[in-house]
Write a structure and sequence with these properties.
It is a single chain. With 406 residues, the protein is mainly alpha-helical. Helix content is 81%, strand content 0%. The protein contains 18 helices and no strands. Helix 3 runs parallel beside helix 5 and helix 6 packs across helix 15.
């Protein structure tokens, strides 16, 4: 982390704001994965309805990312970042007051709008403020905030359900969503708009239309980056959604029920994010994607094709979290460098969230295909296909390591 000490005050404060925002987003988002079983019991929600609550947030987060990117190019990165954090926080707190499935469904959809917007804007903000030689490390390390928020959600879940009855414990976890309001105050005071955005605003040049990213000059970049993000996120969702079920139901492994396994996965994810951030600047954006695609494919093969014991399963949780998460570290800086300033947030928001929207369908497709061919085979096919798309698209895009933004 020597590079962090080399950042100037503005770069460091922007990093803190973006890292905090992403960590709190992860906390608020991952809390749902812990309480869904409680809600199924208290409200008599079936598995289909539970799946809908997860999918609707991801689909609406894609829309939120597109909209936030467009607005950030028009009104500023910092301003829109604050709005997305406030929106996400208000919806999260409101979920704690929901009285039935219908209210929860609507609030989860609205929560998704802010969730998608926060990453789209925060990533561009980081990419434009941090200098080129540290951009990959800084933006990638912000991604590690997800593992921090995920771990905090696990700890708070344990605490809440230890001291409160279930009907109040799950609500209290969402009420913690008020915390990002304090982060907004920090961002408002310490984080400025990027200098290049300020220059464009001062010049009087109007923000480009959303459709500019589909112009002949940018069409290839938009299409290929959208497919790249589809592969990255589709592979991640196919693995993380169904692999625990496969190992528990078809392999009868009990370690999945322990907090130790979850801790190993989260630790692996954090190390993967940090390593990916370093490699993105050291070896390049494309090399980082290629390396983690291969590692992820190997992890899926091991989990779905080899017989594993509980002890082996616990140990292998680390490389699984490492590979599946580390691939995300280079994406933010790469997208920032591929799109021009006047549509950077628009293009980045569209590409990443197009991938999120399509990738959110992968778990459903895996479930459908598993009915004919088995769950392990279905997971392997979709994950392998997704990472093959990542490798192909990475080879079609230029290397942008060290690129100075105009």
């Amino acid at each position: 982390m020597q590079w962090f000490r080399e950042l100037n005050t503005t770069e460091r404060r922007t990093f803190i704001g973006a890292f905090g925002g992403w960590a709190i987003d992860a906390l608020d988002f991952m809390v749902f994965t812990f309480v869904i079983s409680t809600l199924m019991t208290l409200w008599h929600i079936d598995k289909g309805q539970a799946g809908m609550l997860g999918t609707v947030t991801l689909l609406f987060s894609a829309v939120g990312g597109w909209l936030a990117g467009i607005l950030a190019d028009r009104y500023g990165r910092v301003r829109i970042l604050q709005y997305t954090i406030i929106w996400f926080s208000v919806c999260t707190v409101a979920i704690g007051f929901a009285q039935n499935f219908e209210q929860l469904f609507v609030l989860r959809a609205l929560q998704g709008l802010g969730f998608g917007g926060e990453w789209a804007v925060g990533s561009v903000l980081m990419g434009e403020i941090v200098r080129a030689q540290h951009r990959g490390k800084a933006v990638g390390t912000v991604q590690s905030g997800w593992a921090v928020g995920w771990g905090a959600a696990a700890l708070l879940y344990t605490l809440a359900f230890s001291v409160l009855p279930p009907e109040w414990a799950w609500r209290s976890l969402f009420w913690i969503g008020v915390l990002p309001a304090f982060l907004v105050l920090y961002i408002r005071k310490h984080v400025p708009e990027p200098e290049m955005f300020q220059r464009r605003q001062a010049s009087g040049i109007a923000a480009a239309s959303f459709w500019t990213i589909f112009s002949p000059a940018l069409l290839k970049t938009t299409v290929v980056t959208s497919l790249l993000c589809t592969g990255v996120q589709g592979g991640y969702y196919a693995i993380t959604t169904w692999l625990p079920t496969f190992l528990k139901v078809e392999r009868n492994l009990s370690v999945l029920n322990t907090g130790g396994y979850l801790l190993v996965i989260i630790a692996g994810s954090f190390c993967g994010y940090i390593t990916g951030a370093y490699l993105a600047d050291r070896l390049g954006r494309r090399a980082n994607l290629l390396i983690f695609s291969v590692l992820s494919a190997i992890s899926v093969y091991v989990y779905t094709q080899l017989p594993l014991t509980n002890g082996q399963m616990l140990v292998l949780g680390f490389p699984l979290g490492f590979a599946a998460s580390g691939i995300f570290s280079g994406i933010g800086a790469y997208l920032t460098e591929l799109f021009p300033s006047n549509v950077r947030a628009t293009g980045q928001g569209f590409a990443y969230n197009f991938g999120r929207g399509v990738g959110a369908l992968f778990p459903s497709l895996v479930g459908f295909l598993s009915q004919q061919h088995g769950l392990g085979w279905a997971i392997g096919v979709f994950a392998a296909g997704a990472y093959a798309v990542v490798i192909l698209t990475a080879l079609l895009l230029p290397e942008t390591k060290g690129r100075q933004l105009e």
